[in-house]
# Entry
Amino acid sequence: MTASALAAALRRHLEDRLDRPETVARLHPIVTRHLPVEGAEAGSTWCPPMYALRLATALGLPEHVALAFAVAGACYFSAADVADDVADGDLRRTVGLDLNDACRLLFLVDAALADLPDVDADTRLALMRLFAARGLQMADGQEDDLEGTDAIEAADPLDISLRKTGAEYAVFFAGPALLAGLDPAPWADFGQALGALLQTLTDYFDQFLQPESDDWLAGKPTLPLRHGLAQPTHGPALRTLLAGDRHAADRAARAAWHLVQAGAGDRMAAAMATLRGRLDDAAARAGEPPILAELAAELLDMGDGVVEALAEYRGDPAPPVRPLADEVAEAVDATRRFLAADASFDGATEVHRWGLFGAPDVRAGLFGRLVICDALWGLGLPLDDALACIFAQADGDGWRYYPGHADIPTDADDTGMALQLAARCGRAGDPAVRRGAEALLANRTDDGRFHTWLCDGRTHQRAVVDATWAGGLCPGVNANALLGLWAVDAAAHREVVRAGARALADWTGTGPEAPPSAFYKPVTVDALIVRCLTTVLGDEPAEVARLRPAVDAALARLTARARLDGRFGGVIDTALAGWTLAGAGQLRAPEATLRALVDALEPDGGHPAEDYFVTVGVAMQHGWYGARALTSALVLRAIARLAEAP
# Structure
């Protein structure tokens, strides 16, 4: 029985079951994609349906029965293949349409099994149960594979292979045994071990033979990669190579050297020994049929060749490495020049031209510049003009996002940030600072928290303002307000800040999710919580016991976002999480995060504009605000902190 005969049988099955010729024309290349036939996209004799045909021949099954089973198996295999492509982003059409095709293929499996010729009802039912049970096991393995992709922690790769590819191959070995009237259990066990061996082999081929390894680029939980990462000598270097831009030309070659030196060949040999034992045991229970010995020998011989080749490569010299410190210095210099040329630093500021508040032009962007200056203070950039502009734009009752527009009240976020900046740059005695602090102190809840909008009850009514400007209580805003009061006069505001910190700790709690905010994303909220509570924590046992759990919970939430690529999300999330965790001494791999931030640099020295906080636009709709200068400033501050991390 040949692959061509199976391809023809598959076409007949599709034509018999599908009403639309265009659907048949689309699905036939998919179900024959891995068959060793002319024109197949990825033809291979390792394709599971081909194993089924070889076993059927060896077991003496009639050709029409063997082909009918292989048709069901090919549809089954192809449904999983389509779903896997969707998970990897390799779409043929759209996610919805591709998933619809995967479901269609599963229905075609049922149709093929229901119509198996010359098969009694009990055997047909046993086959259906086999497909279902192993399919569910395969889905569990696939889930662990997907969850482990680019993750710091992952399930054991060999276990994933046994439950993913192994479960799939078990169907193609147990099925022919069932049709031949044999006990399917040892055949299923043999197929599971053989499938895991094949998966391990292909993972090694992908890692060491492909110019651009798909597994490397995705950070898959494969045996060579996870073994290398766990090796104490070469693991840290591999973690840094995996961070940031993995497509860089020299990364894969250097990674391959480290993987070989970490003992990838030895780990392959150990995995083969484990799987060889399972193959031998299953074959013995099946009665030592020659076909099983033949199939095992094919892959085991190939695996032995891989082990021998990796042993030879172990003597290769280490490829040249450019120090990361040199790249960091260049990136910092480029970003400094980018920021120095930005208009935010000479008093010019963003202008909204949509007639907000009835005015033709509205100057805005104050909060973004406050964040920028706060991040950059002390890093050597010339901020005098920017600071002069910021303090000149203070109103009589604090700072507004839209300076000079009394239509809206001052806000605790702008005012808190301005107070922090004033303390940093020696302007704590400025009259605007006193007025801002008074406005904050007059707008607290009974439990010590701060309202977002600082309403006086006369010009601005809180209910109206909160409904218009996304008001309410925000943990990030509270953190900035507390930090501002503490910074300008810790002694005078000690009790107010301590009460607010206790309220913030109780409010944010110790759950797995950051507390909700109308203005900030979760990483920003957690970073602000840590920054605020650690600033005012002190060493009083009662205070530590009250605040520390909230700090630890926020740090744990940030840590849980870490990926193998050194990122914690986007560029801003990575900068804030890296900065915060490094400051707490809890950043697992500072060099990986540093690598990711350096690789985020764009050609002109800046970084991409990413959503940072919520503001308002025309017609008073709320939306996210971001600016390249803001992202770049946060990255520059994070790089400075990470460069100091042990």
